[in-house]
Amino acid sequence: MLEIAIGIILGCCALGAGAAMIAGIGPGIGEGNAVAKACEAIGRQPESKGDVTTTMLMGCAIAETTGLYALVIAILLIFVAPGLFVDILISTI
Amino acid sequence: MIKADKTVINETKYIAYSLALLSIIMQSVFLILKRWNYTVLLGNLLTDAVMIANFFLMGLGIQKALQQNDENVKKIVKLSHSFRTLMIFAVVVIGVALPLFNTIAVIIPVFFPRIAILFKPLLQNKLEKSGE
């Protein structure tokens, strides 16, 4: 019975990590679109290249943090959570 | 080899200085809580280095993308994002798995660039006011 419970915990942690990484898709698409629009803007006004690049760099960094949150949660679910949950389960029994 | 643009270097410098400042604050908190040991410092340094490298590589990727035509831009940025995410994943996994690094000190600096960017407009406003 204990083995089944541990198996369920490990499986759920792995599923959770996989589900969390769905959030990693968004920033890639968002950054791609932002840079494509910045290209258009620089094409229209080449003199504003510096300002556009600075704003876009910061925007991309902010967009990327969403993916990083998901990444950190996935790593914690894979490497930290299973041990913690199994310990709690064993101490409860 | 692509040469880094002045804007990319300046923004990376800003992120590096901010990360250093925030790291000092984090180390101080660990010291106050009496949880500080060398693993905290090593974990912090590891993640700081990776986050600065991540920002710099993002800047280089964007700079390269800006020189391309419209179709290639999205592909380059997506590829750059995937490689950088893999890099962060690998380093954070090493940091979490090895006992040489403190897990909390490895994970917290991942969020420092966001905090640094959040405070940038405030800092700019202050600098503009002091310049007037």
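qc> The interface with chain A takes residues 5-8, 11, 15, 55, 58-59, 62-63, 65-66, 68, 70, 73-75, 77-78, 81-82, 84-85, 88-89, 92-93, 96-97, 103, 107, 110-111, 113-114, 117, 120 of chain B (CB under 8 Å).
qc> done
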